[in-house]
Amino acid sequence: MGKLDVKMNKAADKLTIQMAGTIDEDVDFSQFNLAGNQAIEVELSGLKSINSCGIREWIKWMGTAGGASVSFSHCPKVIVDQINMVDGFLPATGKVTSFYVPYYNDDSGSEKNVLFRYGTEFQEGSVTPPSSVKDEEGNEMEMDVIESKYFKFIKK
Amino acid sequence: MKKRGISIRYKILLLLTSLPLITLSVYLVLALRIFEDDKIAYVFDSSSNMSGTMAAQIKTQLNSVLGTTKPIFQDYLTQQKFTSISDSIFLNEYNLEAVVVFTPGQAGSYQQTALLEKVPGQTVGVLGGLQSQMATYFTEVEATRRMVKVPFSDDRVFIFEKVSDETKTRNTIFLVIARMSEAAEMFRTALSQKMYLISQDGTVLFGPDGSPGRKLQETVAPAFLKNISSQVAQGAETTKASNGTELLVSFSRAGFGDLTVVTTVEKEKALGAVQILIRKSLIFFGILIAATVILSLFASSGITQALTQLFSATQKVAEGDFNIRVDVKSNDEVGSLADNFNIMAAEVSRLLEQTAEKARMESELQTAKTVQETLFPETRAKIGPLAIAGYYEPASECGGDWWHYCQIGNKIFLWIGDATGHGAPAALITSAAKSASTIIERLNISPAKALELLNRSIYDVSKGRIMMTFFLASFDLETGELVYCNASHEAPFLIKKGEGPLKKKDLIPLNEVNNPRLGQARDSVYEQTSIQVEEGDSVFFYTDGIPDIQNPGKEAWGEREFLKALIAANKDYPGVNDSVDRFVVTFQGHRQGAPLVDDVTFFVVKHEGLQ
């Protein structure tokens, strides 16, 4: 098994992809054909990291989707960072339907990833974070990102 | 090198010849021993048969003589004289020479009382010759009833027979003189073995020439003669003759008087066949060993020839010649060894070439590193109101990060970029970027236009294989305006000077515009924007290698710790030198000397005012 695990499920008019692992220079996306689909759903919760060579391969791979609408769900922070930073990482027809926002409590050291969903915690141009996020011990947690940077892709 | 000992060829030769030699020798010794024992048993058997047959024949002949003379004895004892019947019987027996009768006289001693003889007067002479022993003979025959003597000079025998009357008070001794020419001749002429007719005391009666009249013990002293009372009728033994010769002796008691037939045969002669067997075996051995040696030479030369080739080849290898190859065509272990040697030599040769190539490449990389270091500016500078301090550390000899600053007119251009990956390929792209920037700097154009030109340059160099994130800003020395253009690079942080200590919310990412990476597409158009940098404000430029810094446990520093360190280093809005130094101390504390996974580059600029 390679460093990246990709599961593809082709329905009548939709391709569902689940990805887990690492995207780097060793990844070979040519075996995962995106062409010929009207809609593609990519589930990314298992993705651990992506480096600069992996970004290059990702953008080339997404380019093969053509005019298909691509939705990304359960995007981890590593993907959100790349969406914000790398122009073209999110294809022109791409849309994020949900993503994780890291929270932490500096005193207890607790961490939590809170899923922000389209239509609930965010929509075009605006973010509505939960009014309060607490850890298992009831400690108030704060967002572990710089909001103006992390939510940049929503406010475009 | 260790001194060379005996060649394997000779060892194999020695092994192949000594093995059959030892095996056959052991076999020969065992076979000879069995053969010798069997032969001795055979000789004992045949000589015992001969002595037994001869003893039976002697007994038969003597009994025949006595059987013939019994009527004569009876005739005499009845008539007290020989009648015509006795004469008739006597004359018809050609081997009878005389019958002499002895009866006790007045004094008790035996006196001749009658005589039958073929040749008149002849017996007187014979008796005269025996006169001296007659008294002893009479005593013996009194005791033994029957006795046989010989004159030792011819083939006659003297049979003494004591006959008692019915009351056993009066004894008559008959002396029968008869010829046993055939028997005597047989004892004389026995060839392969000697045959003796002896009396109880060992006196030879008949035997080979020179032996009659002598004691057998003078020649050989078999054990059975030492035990006179033994009743063993027949036997055989090995004993030594007086001259030291080993003899196989067998005996058979005749069962007539005290006569015994003894045969002797020299062991050496008896075992002559064994000697022949040994000689023939040795000849066979010689032929076998010669054949073994020849075959061994053929067999060993095949092996040793290949080994000699291997030996020579290893010597060449020891001298540093790894291009040597061994030509062995056999398919056995030696052939496999030669094949493996060839593979090993080829592999060593390849590794040597690879090592030399690696050394050359390392040397070139070192040169490239030295060259690349010239691409970076002085890490500390002050240009007008703008103070600059930077830090750069590649993950390997050459890095893919690059930063730079330069003054064009009244503007300071601030460059930072990160090529895809790191190492030599990325370093080559940074070198191309530096070259292009040198030209672009002279054009006095905006950051967006500059990145458009730089993008074309990178794209033409890498053909889309290597890209570069880039952030270019120009700081106006007079107005404090910072115009920037981002090509998908980590957004720098504007650190606005506030009243209190720096907080996380005071970090303003410069991410209002973003553009494709350099080298992604040739004709990309880049947008720029501007912000105002006030006196006391700083801008922190960096590459993505900083959050990736790992400690020896491979734990990444992470964005949270990175931001904490950035805030801590600038909490009191220090000068750029302090800011950089504090930040370096913090991340080195996490790193603890662990190798970098990506290049680390950052620099801080601060608007310190015109004073």
Question: What labels describe this entry?
Answer:
heterodimer; A: 156 residues; alpha/beta; four-stranded antiparallel beta sheet; 4 helices; 19% helix; 39% strand; globular; B: 611 residues; alpha+beta; six-stranded antiparallel beta sheet; five-stranded antiparallel beta sheet; 12 helices; 21 strands; 44% helix
Task: Explain the overall architecture.
The complex is a heterodimer of chains A (156) and B (611). Chain A is of the alpha/beta class and 156 residues long. Helix content of chain A is 19%, strand content 39%. Chain A has 4 helices and 11 strands, in the order E-E-E-H-E-H-E-E-E-E-E-E-E-H-H. Chain A has helices at residues 52-63, 77-85, 147-150, 152-155; strands spanning 4-10, 14-23, 39-50, 69-73, 94-96, 98-104, 111-117, 122-123, 126-127, 133-134, 140-143. In chain A, the strands form 3 sheets. Chain A has a 5-stranded mixed beta sheet with strand order 1-2-3-4-5, with helices on one face. Chain A has a 4-stranded antiparallel beta sheet with strand order 7-6-11-10, with no helix packed on it. In chain A, strand 1 (4-10) and strand 2 (14-23) form a beta hairpin. The longest helix of chain A has 12 residues, at 52-63. Chain B is an alpha+beta fold and 611 residues long. Chain B contains 12 helices and 21 strands. Chain B has a 6-stranded antiparallel beta sheet with strand order 11-12-21-20-17-18, covered by helices on one side. The longest helix of chain B is centred in the N-terminal third of the chain and has 72 residues, at 8-79. Chains A and B meet through helix 1 of A and strand 18 and helix 11 of B.
